[in-house]
Amino acid sequence: MIRILLALPLLFALLLLHGDAEARAFRVAQIPNGSEDGCGGCHISQISGGPRNAFGIEIQQNFLSPPGSAFGSVVWGSALANLDSDGDGVSNGSELNDPNGTWQFGDAAPGDPNDVTNPGVVDTSPPTPVPALSILGLGLLMSALLGLALWKIRELNPASR
Ligand SMILES: [Ca+2]
Question: Which of 15, 131, 135, 160 lies 20 to 30 Å from 75, alpha-carbon distance?
Answer without folding.
Answer: 15
